[in-house]
Amino acid sequence: MSIRTLLTSSKKFASVCHTITRRTASTTTTSSETAAVLSSSSSNDDSHGPPSVMESIVKLNFIDPSGARRQVPGFIGKTIYDTCEMHGIDLGPASCGATLEEVRSDTWTEPLYGEGPTSGFDHVLITGNGVETAKPITWMEERSLGDYWDDDEIFPESRLATQVFLTEEMDGMTVYVPDRLVDDMA
């Protein structure tokens, strides 16, 4: 390509751009109008500010078998077991099976083909704020609790810590950690 062809094509391109700019300039707002619109919208947004990490954290109150209390933060969407692991609260081995099924509506339960909870070592009792927002106990969770714990140690509040996902409503919920089962026999 010669220099003459390149210059000619670039002049044509510049001419077309100038024409388009002239046509759209008559329909656009002035810079002072744009600044006024931006400042009015930004003043409304500043009252809320950017999202905070604290909006995704809830406080959980743990009570161990000796009666000692401890309040720890937990992330919404994580399990009670994950929260215990982050803060050094020993619940024993995790029931780490994948979700068996997910209730999507009154008429549809989606099979997810997970094996469900695989042990009952991470038994906890949950009471207080947001307990009703936890997913209902599954038959696999009930079976795991029954296999590992005696009937007099299972209560209506009994759940496996790996099966309860934290929600915003659970802020201030109390989690009682019963005596551990012997799980370290060699």
Structure description:
This protein has helices at 3-25, 31-46, 80-86, 139-148; strands at 57-63, 69-75, 101-103, 109-111, 123-127, 158-160, 174-176. With 186 residues, it is of the alpha+beta class. It has a five-stranded mixed sheet. The protein has a two-stranded antiparallel sheet with strand order 3-4. It starts with a helix and ends in a 10-residue tail after the last strand. Residues 37-46 have low confidence and may be disordered.
Overall number of strands: 7
Strand order of the largest sheet: 2-1-7-5-6
How much is the radius of gyration in Å?
Answer: 30 Å
Secondary-structure element sequence? HHEEHEEEHEE
Content of β-strand: 15-25%
The biggest sheet amounts to: 5 strands, mixed
Structural class: alpha+beta
* Shape annotation: globular
Instruction: Provide a count of the helices.
Output: 4
Contiguous low-pLDDT stretches (5 residues minimum) are: 37-46
Average pLDDT taken over every residue = 79
Distance between the termini: 81 Å
Q: In which range does the helix fraction lie? A: 25-40%
What layout of secondary structure does this protein have?
Elements: H1 3-25, H2 31-46, E1 57-63, E2 69-75, H3 80-86, E3 101-103, E4 109-111, E5 123-127, H4 139-148, E6 158-160, E7 174-176
Parallel strand pairs: 1-7
Antiparallel strand pairs: 1-2, 3-4, 5-6, 5-7
